[in-house]
Amino acid sequence: MTQPIxxxxxxxxxxxxxxxTVAAAFKVADEVIVVDSGSTDDTVAVAxxxxxxxxxxxxxxxxxxxxxxxxAAQHDWLLDLDADEEVSDTLAxxxxxxxxxxxxxSVYGLDLCLRPPGGPLWEGFFNVTRAKLYDRRVHRMxxxxxxxxxxxxxxxxxxxxxxxxxxxxxxxxxxxxxxxxSVSTVRARETRKRPLWELRLRIVxxxxxxFLKQYVQKGGWRGGMYGFALCxxxxxxxxxxxxxxxxxxxxxxxxMPRP
Length: 259
What we know:
Blueprint (H helix, E strand, L loop, with lengths): L2 E9 L6 H8 L3 E8 L6 H7 L3 E4 L5 H11 L4 E6 L2 E3 L1 H13 L5 E8 L13 E8 L24 E8 L5 H18 L5 H22 L6 H26 L10
Parallel strand pairs: 1-2, 1-4, 2-3, 6-8
Antiparallel strand pairs: 4-7, 5-8, 6-7
């Protein structure tokens, strides 16, 4: 049974999995909007075939793209999904119960749980809480090229809804490397510029710290050898953001150094 919820999904060449994402979204939402940024595969046709309304929107940046979905929505209650996120049956039942009673809060946290390619769901470790179900009359996505999460919310204090939001985060580790390289470039450019002394310190000492956060604090060790490899890549990507900021700050990226 669907609820008075609009779900929006950003896409770019997601033809192989968008049908699953849209079908799962329809477990709880009576409207699914796909905001496509110029797919050259069959994403648009597959999404429309699955029942989604597709909006063609050239890429504006992470937060701006979500704003497009917000503004196109029929309902005020919104479910923010990426094309690699699948609403589980348990989560769908929880959301149905929430709306049967009437939401008491204006935003809810979802438990984003990774499912590696060919492996079991990593439930109970390496997961993150994300504010993805919200009332747009109270909250809006930031108008920002890099950031695309609701601002001013302590996700640790959110009411967490029962049931995983299944995250098919990557097709293989090579895709993770390519994605993280791209993400680190955007975040190095769009986020707060750190002083050179701090960047030097982070470049020399930050790598092990970033790895331990992924491997120990987030529980990547529970993912076996695959978890070790993934944590290495993610910590490298965080370190790479520092390197790219340093490169830009010193003019070694081909531009003039900042004042």
